[in-house]
Design a protein that fits this description.
Layout: E1 3-5, E2 11-12, E3 15-17, H1 20-29, E4 37-41, E5 46-55, E6 61-70, E7 79-84, H2 90-101, E8 105-110, H3 121-141, E9 153-154, H4 155-161, E10 167-170, H5 179-184, E11 195-199, H6 207-215, E12 219-221, H7 230-245
Parallel strand pairs: 1-4, 7-8, 7-11, 8-9, 10-11, 10-12
Antiparallel strand pairs: 2-3, 3-6, 4-5, 5-6
Length: 249
């Protein structure tokens, strides 16, 4: 059954009111008609069976709620992705796949090797785009909580704000402390959540950034002898962590 996102503010008196974008998708792409039933989620855990009613006098596409149920499909272990901005469509893919595997939220960061430059209104526009990708990924993977994509910030600012929380920095120069050792030897407290997984952009983190992160309490970890692309490293590490501590597998 087709799934659509509706903001909680647009669910009123047992009826839902679809956004213009969702309305176009329903009517023009899927060609659904009044009387057909769809699934709606509101991003807070609630899922609704909704019968399409058609356009109201205001022009808004509406639907009648037939049933609602709270469906929690979230991982029991909270893992946050802190991602150095990648070029082109890579960042879109990273966000989409991170949401699918169960990441709790996403913090885009600027680093020394960041190539993409976002100034002024472009920052907000890009954040809105990434948040829309997060919602779309939830539609596909049947998550009912939409992971927030936070405003872009510098790596230094992020570390200052989260220095008292468990942070794993993926660093290709780290050969001794591997992700396997972290998980097998309980090098980070599992009872303190979320963990923050830091991934560099193309080119990874610089030596100075790694030293700063370590100084501020982050644990530097390696993923083995091969150098992985930014769009591979974070998703692989997240998958391993959520397999061991969450609900994957």
């Amino acid at each position: 059954m087709h799934r659509f996102f509706v903001d909680p503010e647009d669910i009123i008196d047992q009826q839902v009111y679809f956004s213009p974008a969702e309305s176009r998708h329903i009517e023009r792409v899927l060609r659904l008609r009044p009387g057909e039933t769809v699934v709606v989620f509101d991003g807070s855990g609630w899922e609704y069976q909704v019968q399409l009613l058609g356009r109201e006098s205001s022009g808004t596409l509406a639907g009648q709620i037939l049933n609602r149920e709270f469906q929690d499909r979230e991982s029991p272990f909270k893992l946050v992705l802190v991602q150095g901005i990648a070029k082109g469509e890579k960042m879109d893919t990273i966000i989409q796949k991170a949401v699918e595997i169960g990441i709790d939220s996403i913090h885009p960061i600027l680093t020394e090797h960041t190539v993409v430059q976002l100034e002024g209104s472009k920052r907000q526009q890009r954040q809105e785009r990434w948040q829309a990708i997060s919602r779309q990924a939830c539609k596909q993977c049947r998550r009912n909580h939409v992971p927030p994509v936070f405003p872009l910030t510098s790596m230094e600012s992020f570390l200052e704000q989260h220095s008292d929380q468990p942070i794993l920095m993926l660093y290709e120069a780290e050969q001794e402390c591997t992700l396997r050792k972290v998980l097998q030897n309980d090098l980070l407290p599992k009872q303190i959540q979320p963990w923050y997984l830091m991934v560099g952009p193309e080119g990874g983190f610089s030596k100075a950034e790694a030293a700063l992160a370590q100084e501020m309490g982050a644990l530097l970890v390696g993923l083995g002898p091969r150098i992985l692309r930014t769009e591979t490293a974070g998703l692989l590490a997240a998958g391993i962590i959520l397999y061991e501590l969450g609900d994957l597998g």
